[in-house]
Amino acid sequence: MRVFITGASGWIGSATVDELLAGGHEVVGLARSEASAAALEAKGAQVRRGDLDDLESIRTGAAEADAVIHLANKHDWSNQAATNKAERAAVEAIGEAMAGSNRPFLLASGVGTAPGRAYTENDPSPNHGPDSPRGGSENLALEYVDRGVHTICLRFSPSVHGAGDPGLIRLLVGTAREKGVSGYVDDGASRWPAVHRSDAARLVGLGLQKASAGAILHAVGEEGIASREIAEAIGRGLGVPAVSIAREDAVAHFGWLGGFFGMDVPTSSTLTRQLLGWTPTGPTLLEDLATDSYFR
Question: Is 277 helix (H, G, I), strand (E, B) or coil?
Fold first, then answer.
């Protein structure tokens, strides 16, 4: 299968490229820089130059592929409106290029909340319209099912961890190093789901093979790790104390991440495991934090 991947040189995308190449697929990765293009070519993937603002390149890549996996996102936390706009435009470009083809279109999304219980694959995303988080891209993509697109939504844990992780855990480590304390919000009972990068990439490959149109898959290896446990593990790695940060002081302490680290978002992947026969086998988040990979 010829698979076009946006975000192919990113944290999740590069592992997904490896997974698909190992499975015998032909991979074409969207690359915005010479370095990204060279890294993809070194793996044995083909390259299409462009970025999220190059909608013509995205349309052409989607039109020429047997399947599309959309993993790219600007992640510009200082300009969420621009990030959301770019995400929605890219999803619309892919959807229009694939309409009527019944070809698979897998796109990255995030987990949500369900007060009093774990968030499940049956919980719809509340984000609709261009001004909502991610530009409402999950619901927009699902609209294309009725137009002959085999849409599959990939909801990734807030922590997709592993050696070299550039994500939210790395930011928490940086804050703890800067502040001299490893903070958690209030009593630290709020929970974050997590998944190892290798398990996330394997789920994407299985989703491409097995998931039906309209499926929602949860890339969640651990339903929820208490933020206090995460902070304590970071504290041990840096040799600094773990301390409580009052909720009203969280943004001042953590920056924009303070609005997220105190959220309780336990998330189930039971239905995903049953559907795909997917069993996470990689290290847990706390096992990764017990190594020196986050603290070098």
Answer: coil
Decide the pairing of beta strands 191-196 and 222-226.
Answer: antiparallel
Would you give the distance in Å from CA 47 to the centre of its chain?
22
**81-88: Cβ within 8 A, 24+ apart:** 81/131, 84/130, 84/131, 84/132, 84/133, 84/134, 84/135, 85/130, 85/135, 86/52, 86/53, 86/135, 87/52, 87/134, 87/135, 87/137, 88/130, 88/134, 88/135, 88/136, 88/137, 88/140
**Predicted confidence (pLDDT) per residue in 75-97, tens digit:** 777 788 888 999 999 999 999 99
Which string of b and e fits 167-192 if b means at least 16 CB within 10 Å? bbbebbbebbeeeebbbbbeebebbb
Average pLDDT (23-43) is 96
- Give the span between the Cα atoms of 160 and 172, in whole angstroms: 14
All structural domains of the chain, each given as residue ranges with its CATH number in brackets, are 2-156 (3.40.50.720), 166-193+223-289 (3.90.25.10)
Convert the pLDDT of each residue in 264-275 to its tens digit. 999 999 999 999
Enumerate residues 6+ apart whose C-beta is below 8 A from 215: 152, 153, 207, 275
Query: Do residues 106 and 152 lie in contact, with contact meaning Cβ atoms separated by under 8 Å?
Result: yes
Kind and range of the H or E run holding 124: none
Q: Are 20 and 68 a contacting pair, CB within 8 Å? A: no
Going by C-alpha positions, the residue among 46, 50, 57 that lies closest to residue 93 is 57
pTM of the model: 0.96
Confidence band (pLDDT; 50, 70, 90) for 220? Answer: very high
Residue 96: left (phi > 0), alpha (psi -120 to 50), or beta? alpha
What sign has the CA pseudo-torsion 282, 162, 78, 38? negative
